[in-house]
TrEMBL record:
Transmembrane segments: none annotated. Pfam families: AHSA1 (PF08327). Residues 23-155 form the Activator of Hsp90 ATPase homologue 1/2-like C-terminal domain. It comes from the Bacteria. Belongs to the AHA1 family. This is Polyketide cyclase.
């Protein structure tokens, strides 16, 4: 069952990145759901994702540990809310695994993918609790950061086909 209403965009609170990428949807899905693959592209260079844990089910853990070029580390703990194979991932930092409240609430992310021949229609939505949090995410470089990460995902997956 798809919950289309959850993907309704509120321009006051949400950021959206949408593209068609020349990568099959299966490769995009694997890049998002296999920790060893995700670590290869998830964080815009020169940042790195040095650890990742994925328990791919609603209530399952979505954890990444990012490292700045200076060596500072930034853990991101969250939980999957919805997993639809080859179509959708929804995760949030408002909850930890097992749907335990985290005490942190920056965003809920929707990542959808749709096969278009050998390409994929890719859409990422970051939903925020208030306009200030959305603005903070914009100022952090949402469009450049998530766009660069997607470029890196495409480049990474192309190395898998060689």
């Amino acid at each position: 069952m798809k919950l289309e209403s959850n993907e309704t965009i509120n321009p006051e609170l949400d950021l959206v990145l949408e593209r068609i990428v020349e990568v099959p949807v299966e490769m995009v899905w694997n890049a998002w759901t296999k920790p060893e693959q995700l670590k290869q592209w998830f964080t815009p260079v020169p940042w790195k994702t040095i650890d990742c844990r994925i328990d791919l089910k609603p209530g399952g853990e979505f954890y990444t540990l990012m490292q700045s070029p200076e060596g500072n580390q930034f853990p991101n703990n969250g939980c999957f809310l919805e997993v639809v194979p080859l179509e959708k991932l929804v995760f949030t930092d408002s909850l930890l695994s097992g749907f335990r409240p985290s005490g942190n609430s920056f965003m809920t992310a929707f990542v959808t993918m749709e096969s278009i021949g050998t390409a994929t229609k890719y859409k990422a939505i970051a939903k925020h609790k208030d306009p200030e949090t959305k603005k903070q995410h914009e100022d952090m470089g949402f469009m450049d950061g998530w766009g660069t990460a997607l470029d890196q995902l495409v480049a990474f997956t192309k190395t898998l086909t060689k």
